[in-house]
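Because discrete structure vocabularies remain unfamiliar, we first show an illustrative case, written as a sequence plus integers encoding its fold.
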Amino acid sequence: MNATITTLMHFGKRDKKPRFRDTLRSIPIFADLTRRELAAIERILHKREYEPGERIFHQDDPGLGMYIIESGRIGIETDDAPDNVGDLGDGEFFGELPLLDGGPRSATAMAKTPCRIYGFFQPDLFSLIERNPHLGVKIVLSLASIISSRLRAANERVEEMRRLLEASKKPAPPVRKKRTSRR
């Protein structure tokens, strides 16, 4: 009987949904933080729930910070590509650039399903940097690393597109006509 109880208890633990802290740890910005540092981040996050079709932010809105999806699916679209640039789901993050520059949004984010999302905003990051400079610098360096990697990848895509465009502009080799002999 003890074996049965232990097995059921173990089975029950495995079935539990991972804690939000595990979701945070899976995000590259927070991956290297200690438990205590993750707890400090959790305390400054802003939880919000969205219904399907509800806009999280609109392209060109002032950017305030990034978002972490605990559950649900969101679509990203731009004015130039309203059919959807991409979809994001559980455990993914988006909108991180404004944490560093506070610039306008480059796309629109809209809930596709019921969503539970946490916001991490620039004023909270700045306050965190004042209270705990070591933790703030870790986050800013992680953000810079992610943005740098994305910029490199974008540059590679632009270069590949430039090469393809140049190749398409080259004139086609002349077509040699076959000579037919007259007899």
